Each structure stands twice: as structure tokens, then as C-alpha cells.
Amino acid sequence: VQLVESGGGLVQAGGSLRLSCAASGNIFSIKDMGWYRQAPGPQREPVAVIDNGGSPKYANSVKGRFTISRDNTKNTVSLQMNSLKPEDTAVYFCRAIVVDLRGRQYIYWGQGTQVTVSS
After folding, report:
1. What is the pLDDT of residues 34-75, one digit of tens each?
2. CB 3.0–4.6 Å: which of 33, 38, 55, 82 could bond 44 by disulfide?
3. C-alpha of 103 from chain center
């Protein structure tokens, strides 16, 4: 299974970016899909997660600014980021919990995409 992200870049504070992630490979179904971010340092924090029923959860720091969505027919997840702040600068990673035909669950990560917000 591969997760391929796109959409990162450089934007001024107050601007918008949209991240997309497509999962491909041996996939029977996908449970949660989400976005995590990692600023310089060891910790990777959750930003937004959406389950296969479409229910989203957001980190408090992005509520009201970011919107996560997914297309189960295409195994894709997107993150619309508005009103970006310099503190949103990080590498953003897509994550998916993939279920195989035997019901086993595996966690996969994308390679990461850089988001830089200038002040």
C-alpha cells in the first residue's frame, strides 16, 4: 500500500492550501484516514482525522480553519487549510488504517509534504 501526498508549498499568513493524499495497493477497506504534522523536533501531532463514515475530528489549534474530507470510492483524503498561521509550518503526513481481506489492520504513512507559512 502506498500513500502519495500532494499540495504542500509556501504561502503567506492568512492564505490557504489544500493537501491531498491518495492510497493505492492491496486495499480491502480503509478505516480512519488523517493528517499529522511534524515541526522541527521529534513529535508528530494529529491535525485532523476522518473515519470511514465521514465523521471528522480536529486538533483544537486548527478547528474552524481546516476541513478534512475523504472520497471512499477513490481512497483519497484531503485537507483544506484556510487562515494559515506561521505556527502551522510543518511537514504534513497522511496516515491511513488499511484493512485487508482477513480483517487485519495496518497503519501506513505518506512521505510527507512541506507546508511553510510566512509572516
Report:
1. 999 999 888 999 999 999 999 999 999 999 999 999 999 999
2. 38
3. 23
